[in-house]
């Protein structure tokens, strides 16, 4: 893995000081190494994107759409290798890795369609004042830096890369140092399709590389998905340059279960919301609010299902949940188990790391968790569910909204009128009603409060990489 950076249409060796170790979390062992990009190589990547911008933004929309469809087709052709890599480097069960790939493919196809519609968006604007005419142009924002996380590699990068290319932007992509390999597929596809050199650049590295990119004065926009702590640093960098930024950050999301629910269905939705990707989701519904009338039936059933989830190595076993992706995350989740013991929380299931090789933890359920507990208020990023009971709809809404985050929520109720009413009252960016967390490329993604700035997916994802220009002409 010496040529791990894609700059100006060429694969080059890393010249940075950091050696990145790529691990199999099911074994807790490295299986690849690569050298990080140097600050100078980040400069080269930004310069290449800047050089490629005039020609790329001038290409016709149908040509950009053809490239995007090519990305979708090429991802499909690499299906087995990419699924296997997601399983090995992320620890995802096969069915999750396959959904990730399908999501990325759908994203490129969707933005190919939106790219073809762009010419119709440049239009004449009617004016009330006589003697003038005006028209609107939607233009690419320019050179963008894309910094993506380790929990959904390939997917999150598709959510950013596809609309950026559709809009006519050129990009510098920095994958997470935890999962740096799978995004290499985008560089390989760019080569296969003959994407013009410099339109897509990929630099790998740790914090030094990310800082070099987010601080670079050659960018016109920065889009970041990751933790709030790093996101605040990215926002400071953006403010110093007075440039736009999109931030998709953390969450501490609620799932609200009313007492008219079918118990088994509710348990299915709850478990999916906390165990998918081993709970390593900004959207994990890790706060369970269950109405008094159903709690005594639901909680023992939920306990049994969590205790019987098959946890193991997805490459060698049929599993429902794999390991945590990194040792750092494993240690973080273990520290919350210790905090729970120190706070005297009631643990119905799990609450410990598993005694086996690799970075495995047990699916965990705590009940009657106080609202001031760290486990109730802080994002854990693991399969740790905290439950509280509520009596009324108003109480459920108030407790769900009592958070510094506002990413997503789920509402479970047989009374659809009530479910819709509660969904409207929740202070979040996306709500599911009686469903697992199905995410569609046509819908928006992003949150309120401390969960970020801006939206991805849908037409909003495309507009994030566009600027609006008006041309007004006097007819006199």
Keywords:
476 residues, 22 strands, single chain, 6-stranded mixed β-sheet, globular, 7-stranded mixed β-sheet, alpha/beta
Descriptive account of the structure:
This protein is of the alpha/beta class. Helix content is 41%, strand content 21%. The protein is built from 16 helices and 22 strands. A seven-stranded mixed beta sheet has the order 14-15-16-13-12-18-19, with helices on both faces. It has a six-stranded mixed beta sheet with strand order 9-8-7-10-11-21, sandwiched between helices. It is globular.
- Across the major sheet, the strand order is 14-15-16-13-12-18-19
Dominant shape: globular
Estimated share of beta-strand residues: 15-25%
Tell me the structural class: alpha/beta
- Chain oligomer state: single chain
The number of helical segments is: 16
Largest sheet: 7 strands, mixed
How many DSSP E strands?
A: 22
How large, in whole angstroms, is the Cα Rg?
Answer: 23 Å
Report the span from N to C terminus. Answer: 65 Å
Instruction: State the share of residues found in helices, binned by percent.
Output: 40-55%
Mean pLDDT: 96
Low-confidence stretches: none
